[in-house]
Write a structure and sequence with these properties.
The complex is a heterodimer. Chain A is of the alpha/beta class. In chain A, 37% of the residues lie in helices and 24% in strands. In chain A, helix 1 runs antiparallel to helix 4 and helix 5 runs antiparallel to helix 10. The longest helix of chain A is centred in the middle third of the chain and has 19 residues. Chain B has a 6-stranded mixed beta sheet. Chain B has a 5-stranded mixed beta sheet with strand order 8-7-9-6-10. The interface between A and B is medium-sized, with 19 and 18 residues.
Chain lengths: 361, 209
């Protein structure tokens, strides 16, 4: 399945969308100190980074990610926000790939004072971003406060339960629950987190009822507020609450986004609130953002129409005549391909064969 | 339309038999056939007949929306999929086996022969035992017999092959059974169909197994 639009049109439309909301283009350098990625490798999708020594002997890296550079270099005054978008190449392993790849990544970040309006604006921007590529999309929203709150109740089993949550694995959870003797409340909280309901409001009500601690309760309260706003603006049909998606708790602390497009077998957009990354980098304030992995969906975009209006075949005696005809056709905004023979694989609407000295239409 | 990847062999035949009983019959389906794709009469499902260890690949990459894979394969490859049901069939265990006279010499790394490299590495990392992996693709039991490994990590169903080669089980890593898995994106876009087929399959397992 292919999307209706070509990649460059989508990038242009999205840039206009972000500029329309006052987001400034951010352009990072291609290289960054290796230590930035080494210290924060769990924030990265792939753990491997292309590294090299620069002319002064300092260990540098080709950037595998834009967010880390952006957060490191941006200074925001207290109480203010910086709104930025980028469209850059990153260098990392492609999902499932065995080698490094240059991957196009487009993203949006807000750094500074993050309030409800920012979270809701970003959620709407994600819906509009996905819809720009394909109207048939799904946005899953989760919340680290809910998932971390839930997992903290399982003590030493936390890691195992996180795996069950991520893969919606109820059967192995039930086996473990039988062995450990989990309470009904704890089991119910896990069932609620794993289940997907068609109606977001019902999901949130159930999540509220099942909440076991303050972290889970305040997460549901925030999701309810965000949902009320996006509902007001008409972006709810394609939004789900799904707590099986959870990010790395060392970096993420609030809402988590996962975007899917019909026809693509993996998520194409990820993001969320990552105040803890700022804390790790000794910065104040919060941050929220998302990245769209254009490079991993490039095969789904419509391709350029490579056919030409006219193919002109010439020989030694008709070279000048061929150039003349080509110029005339270009003046009429028609595309022309000059060739001494029939180019393999080329499609054309008309052919002028000057070797035969007659035009075939 | 749901695309289902079934593992070639006895397990796949059993799962197909369950699915056919709950409405997804496919007249042209015969395990002996050389065909790899079968369509059911209702037009609701397509069956793909694939190598058992490849089911999770087909599902993760979205060629199949759902599939049946052994827990051993899921543990080994950690595919990014949802695991919707334990079909309670194809039961066996991931075990450690060694020669009957084996004694662990903790002063040197344990030589482990296996097909399941990650499973073995994760297990021994968890218990803090230093190992050397010998990756084999079949007849794993031969490795300790010929002295190229101290132990093997492999699936044990009845234990007959081990006995015949004078080996014994010295530990169990995990229980294995067939799992019904789904591609994550397919689960979003075909939620009703996938949920329905999961429920029907769970019911069928209870009734007919």
């Amino acid at each position: 399945m292919k999307f209706a639009k070509r990649e460059e049109f989508i990038v242009e439309e999205l840039s206009e969308l972000y500029k329309g909301r006052g987001f400034k283009r951010y352009k990072p350098g291609c290289f960054e100190e290796y230590s930035l990625y080494q210290d924060n490798k769990d924030f990265l999708i792939g753990k491997n980074v292309i590294s090299f020594s620069d002319l002064s002997g300092k260990l540098m890296a080709m950037r595998p990610d834009v967010t880390l550079s952006l957060v490191r270099h941006i200074e925001v005054e207290k109480g203010a926000t910086e709104k930025l978008y980028y469209n850059e190449k990153v260098y990392r392993q492609a999902t499932g790939g065995k080698n490094y790849k240059e991957i196009s990544q487009l993203g949006v970040e807000v750094v500074g004072a993050i309030d409800l309006a920012v979270v809701a604006e970003l959620t709407v921007l994600i819906c509009r971003t996905l819809a720009t590529i394909n109207e048939n999309y799904v946005l899953d929203i989760s919340h680290m406060g809910y998932t971390e709150g839930l997992l903290s109740e399982f003590g030493a089993d936390k890691q195992l339960i996180a795996e069950y949550l991520k893969s919606k694995n109820l059967h192995d959870f039930n086996k473990l629950a039988g062995v450990r003797g989990y309470s009904d409340g704890l089991k119910n909280a896990f069932y609620t987190a794993v289940s997907v309901y068609e109606n977001v409001e019902v999901t949130l009500q159930n999540a509220e009822k099942a909440a076991l601690n303050d972290s889970m309760k305040s997460a549901v309260a925030e999701l309810k507020d965000v949902y009320a706003i996006i509902k007001k603006f008409g972006y709810v049909d394609r939004v789900n609450i799904d707590f099986s998606a959870c990010g790395n708790a060392d970096y993420y602390n609030g809402v988590v986004f996962n975007g899917y497009l019909k026809g693509v077998p993996h998520s194409v957009l990820t993001g969320g609130r990552y105040d803890r990354l700022l804390t790790k980098l000794n910065k104040n304030g919060g941050a929220i953002g998302f990245a769209l992995y254009l490079g991993e969906i490039e095969r789904y975009f419509a391709k350029d129409d490579e056919s030409v209006d006219y193919l002109i075949i010439y020989d030694d005696k008709t070279q000048l005549a061929a150039l003349d005809i080509a110029n005339e056709k270009n003046k009429l905004s028609q595309t022309v391909r000059l060739s001494g023979c029939l180019p393999a694989g080329l499609t054309y609407k008309n052919i002028i064969d000057l070797k035969c000295k007659e035009a075939i239409k | 339309m749901i695309n289902i990847a079934l593992p070639k062999g006895r397990l796949g035949e059993k799962v197909y038999s369950l699915l056919s009983r709950v409405g997804f019959n496919c007249k042209e389906f015969t395990p002996e056939s050389r065909k790899l794709i079968f369509k059911d009469e209702s037009g609701e499902v397509n069956y793909f007949w694939v190598k058992p260890s490849d089911v999770s690949v087909y599902v993760e990459l979205g060629a199949a929306d759902v599939g049946v894979a052994g827990k051993d394969i899921i543990d080994e490859y950690s595919p990014d999929v949802y695991e919707l049901a334990d079909l309670d069939m194809g039961k066996c265990a991931m075990c450690i086996a060694a020669r009957a006279d084996f004694k662990d010499d903790v002063s040197s790394p344990l030589r482990v022969a296996t097909k399941f490299v990650r499973t073995a590495e994760n297990y021994y990392a968890d218990i803090g035992r230093d190992i050397e992996i010998i990756k084999l693709n079949g007849s794993i039991e031969l490795a300790p017999v010929l002295g190229i490994s101290d132990v093997i990590v492999d699936i044990v169903e009845t234990g007959t092959t081990l006995k015949e080669n004078n080996l014994k089980v010295i530990g169990k890593i995990s229980d294995i059974s067939a799992r019904f898995i789904t591609n994550k994106a397919a689960f979003k876009f075909k939620n009703k169909e996938i949920t329905a087929i999961t429920e029907k399959l769970k019911e069928a397992v209870k009734i007919y197994d």
